[in-house]
Structures
1.
Amino acid sequence: MHIWTTSAPPFYKNGFIVACERTREAIVIDPGDDVVDQLAVVKREGVNVTMILLTHAHLDHVTGVGAAKEELGVEVWLHRDDLFLYEGAAEQGRMFGLNVEPQPPPDRFYTVGERLTFGDYIVDIQHTPGHCPGGVCLAIGRSEQDERELFVGDTLFAGSIGRTDLPGGDLETLLAAIRSELFVYPDATVVHSGHGPDTTIGVERRTNPFLT
Ligand SMILES: [Zn+2]
Ligand SMILES: [Zn+2]
């Protein structure tokens, strides 16, 4: 698995390109203000993007969807419960004093438990509400038995968790989702968060102050 991480001001949200090293098929995760860098990676590495996958629909994770879709011509996937946030992107922007263009509508809604594929990899969609209603974890690996890497959006961070004071957020729901959907993975499982550095399930299980 090849992974490239991008991040740009003002939110420094992590966006990802994940590619199959054999087929060069790839996915784009959460194109935001870093979309220019993501498209540069796609071009430079010569990967063939087949899907744009959103972990959730907060402003910082979706402002590059239109640009990515226009350039790549592939479908955009979102959890249905975040559609109200997605359609309210311009409104979210006004809360931050930013002028945000509405983004093109999502093409597909995830079905929970659904499995998507690119190249030799599978992407299992796990519903992790709490930070927002339609948050998902993308669990990527070669097969069911193989180790996964988790792309968790703003659900879990190194040493912290996502905020729950935004519309549709709920602390108990978030903690329950982390325990039932993420903490089922082995300690060595790598976690790629929507902000900040990578971590592992084991480190967070042992040391995250919200979860110990
Ligand atoms: Zn968020
Ligand atoms: Zn975020």
2.
Amino acid sequence: MHTLYYFSGTGNSMHVSLELAKRTKAEVKPMLKEKDFRLEGDVGLVFPIHMNSLPKPVETFIEKSDFSKVTYLYAVSTHCGIPGKPEHYLNDILMKKNRTLDDYHSVKMINNTPKGVAPKFLMRMNWEEDITKEKVEDMIRCTDVAIEEIAYRINNQSTDFKEERIRGNAKPSLMNKLLWKIKGSPKLEFKVDHSCLGCGLCEKVCLAQRIKVDKNPQWIKEECYYCYACFNFCPEQAISVKHYEKKNGRYHYPSITSEQIANQK
Ligand SMILES: Cc1cc2nc3c(=O)[nH]c(=O)nc-3n(C[C@H](O)[C@H](O)[C@H](O)COP(=O)(O)O)c2cc1C
Ligand code: SF4
Ligand code: SF4
């Protein structure tokens, strides 16, 4: 038995999950839909990096899960190039459940947060190069190669992370630890502009069920999963956040649809 549980706001992690599942004969399940947390056999956890760490729903999934019948446990993150060392944070919370991670893999993909949660002084950094067709095609090529390599390691039940940790070679930095501490603190305040059509797509994709659309979207509760699905799937780019208001593009993995994102709930 091999099950791959995933969480994905804009399709990067979903794409990686679906492709890995084909190559490793795993069943794919969204973390948010899971009702029975007694995990069994080989288990993979696939998710995006959020602020050098894990999205809240991934932590919740781990906290609720029973790992006593898991024979091989690996994680795969997708990120935009500055992942930090989330595998150590993940391993720390697994250790509270008497489990450790056997292996960890990561895939660099396109950023789905053009400056959304960063403080203003970081806005001067060039994080926000336009997401061009060439950039997306290049990412797809690199992701395909990474998926093949990761599938090979999963099929061979590699334990590189576990071994390096035991040897003491892989350690998080103080900066990583600091980011893990503050990660829950930023509040995401979205705004909508006059170009909203009232189509309801943002409500449909909102994984935290935080949005209700009457004529316009209202963010009706504080809890947000920071998935950026609302921001990125709006067909009018009518949703803006913090310092990012320009209508110069949004991103989701090209072949993953809003229906697939919404079906995680
Ligand atoms: C709230 C938030 C924080 C993020 N923080 C990081 C980060 O610290 N490092 C990084 O490399 N990418 C970061 N990203 C980028 C995503 O990890 C990346 O785009 C990911 O592939 C998105 O996956 P998804 O489409 O499955 O949601 C962040 C994205 C979001 C939404
Ligand atoms: S997806 Fe965009 S256009 Fe549709 S209701 Fe939401 S904000 Fe308005
Ligand atoms: S409000 Fe937006 S970012 Fe927050 S959970 Fe809903 S879709 Fe995701």
3.
Amino acid sequence: MEKNSATETRKKQHISICLEKSIESDIKTGFNDLFFVHKALPEVDMSDIDTACSFLGKKITAPILIEAITGGTKEAEKINKNLAAAAEELGLAMGVGSQRAAITDKKLQETYNIRPVAPTIPLIGNLGAVQFSKGEYTIKDAKEVIKQINADALAIHLNALQEAAQPEGDLDFKNALDSIKKICADLGKPVIVKETGAGISREIALMLEKSGVAVIDVAGLGGTSFSLVESYRDKDKPAIGNTFKNWGIPTAVSVAETRKTTKLPIIASGGIRTGTDAAKAICLGADYAGLALPLLEAATKSKNDVKKVLERIIKELKTTMFLIGAKNIDELKKKDIVITGKTREWLLERGIDTKEYANRETLESLRTTVKTAMYH
Ligand SMILES: Cc1cc2nc3c(=O)[nH]c(=O)nc-3n(C[C@H](O)[C@H](O)[C@H](O)COP(=O)(O)O)c2cc1C
């Protein structure tokens, strides 16, 4: 098992690199390839738009999630508490960062302990798949971290790219799927499987669904690149992490691929930077959208700074819904969205019909017309 001081140093470095360096991939999410069809007559009152939905059996005010970021250090504790207090006040869901540090050193549990400031929201624990596959953790540890923060679910992160770019990375992913299967069977809480910036393909989504996973978080390419983050920690130059900074499945593509093979709830994350990105992801097939990096700096300051970022995202989401005449999230999922450029090329090459997305409302109204005609 890794010494806790090593985990703590790495966590500190990750935070400072993410705050100080440019760590986003050059290849973007694909959301810029997507266009809503503007409705000059939206036929809704903006004040009637309702973004509420449910997640892990609890009501949330918008399908926006604070992604796993940190834990295990003093600064991480402050970050987690600011994020949690903002999420509680706004009624949004939140994940904590990897709880590895709290397994090796129980004293560090407090740095993740956000339930007292966020008593009602859906809260997600976090551990890495590779530590299970190489036998460092057992189901007992998974149950323990859930208990430590009174979580509603456990996120198991897949980070093969990060580990490959990390000088001290764990590379034995041989039994990861089997470990996930066992955790899903024994945990007694929903398991979310999330990537960490390289995306999930439709084949992997199907394998996860068959293994008993409850929710998939695609965490695709186009936002934070952990390959790039690790490149700054690597003493060897040029760092391998730099070569792989654009590796992965762009988030928009990953959402569309994953939705083709699974009915599971999907979280779109990785490069979600505006409420319009979130709306596009949901229209494409996701149920929720998550953000990490845009909240980090605000979280080092205060709850109110975090709230400001999230309120902007929600306002942008609502404005987008207004401009396409969607009164609620279910209606947003049925709106037309035109897929162009590289995202279209990728989806077509993978046999996904992009025209279907662009003509949903027309097809729906045709179906209604035919039905009405049949009754006359
Ligand atoms: C500083 C930082 C630390 C992170 N630590 C974790 C982690 O411990 N566990 C995890 O599953 N994901 C972690 N992530 C990944 C995020 O949860 C998310 O999947 C990824 O950053 C993509 O979202 P973004 O582009 O909005 O940052 C971290 C992200 C950042 C920025």
4.
Amino acid sequence: MTSVFLHCERIEKRFGQVPVLRGIDLQLQRGECLVLLGGSGCGKTTLLHVIAGLCTPGHGRVSVDGRVIDDAGSGHHLPARKRRFGMVFQDFSLWPNMNVFENIEFGLRIQGVRQAERRRRVEEVLDQVRMGAFRDKLPANLSGGQQQRVAIARALVMRPRLLLFDEPLSALDAKLREELRHEISGLIRDFDMTAIYVTHDQSEAFSLADRVALMHEGQIVQIDPPEALYNRPVSRYVAEFLGAANLFEYQRAGNDLALSCNLTLPPPAQSVPEMGHLVVHREKVSIAPTGRVNGAGGLVDLEGVCRHQAYLGERCEIFAEAGNGAVFRGFSAERIPTGASVRIRFAPEAMHFVAH
Ligand SMILES: Nc1ncnc2c1ncn2[C@@H]1O[C@H](COP(=O)(O)OP(=O)(O)OP(=O)(O)O)[C@@H](O)[C@H]1O
Ligand SMILES: [Mg+2]
């Protein structure tokens, strides 16, 4: 059974005259991993800092386990150190003069945990992040990935109620990023951690999150599990942010859909707003030379011309023009000569419609 752990209500924050958070409402379930995703400057770090208690909201309320920890109305503010949250930052922030063991142990010392217990807990997390062999090394003698493992261990050893990550992998190279992403995901699941993870990287967000909150200009524009966010974006902004390649303005014309490029599509089964944008993800679009198409029924089937292609190894991305300048992107198993006639096909269920 799930229960609400963290509740943010109508959070607003300004820096000077500039509104940076504009009415954030958010509920996090216990054991959930929520990813805050969004472009640079949309307010992700600021929201994380409000939750951590590193800055106070100008308006609104934050509660944990039903207890208010921030209330802009009354001025109540539980200091960060009393929240029992762990934080992992992009720049690792390890103590340079302490070795790995001491870095991880430090917080327990401050808390007055006894030596034997400290040792036991540090050993345990060293094992979990596979850094046991490096316990005597100084941070300067570790790679970026190893330093970040220590930073994660240092947060985990405190057994935080909530783990907050702010772009922990963005200082690392691509291969290491992916490797550590899997490890973090494993740790969060193994410990049944409740976590909020900030990133501007979509694949990181999708692979880690139970739910993703997509932020834009200080607001959450959609919060959903990754599949729902990807397949059912609520707006053109969300679809574009998530890289939807086929996005066409349309208007209903009787039963049909009239795309702005003089192309008419047959009536879809689902109910569709009067006007808006049609979204079709490119991996759902198959493009093949005209003669090779077998007559599989039920698909939207358009005539087009291959204008451009990108060979990707296992398949080929095709840019095909249909109708009056509408370019559909889709995939073909093989190259198609530029200028060749093609069929552009996708299932009606692959169509998604947004009103704005
Ligand atoms: N202490 C501050 N004083 C003034 N403005 C600030 C301060 N902190 C952040 N801002 C501004 O608030 C906005 C949101 O910043 P924030 O750091 O939350 O964005 P972000 O989503 O984390 O971006 P990034 O992906 O670049 O880290 C930005 O326009 C930033 O310049
Ligand atoms: Mg940030």
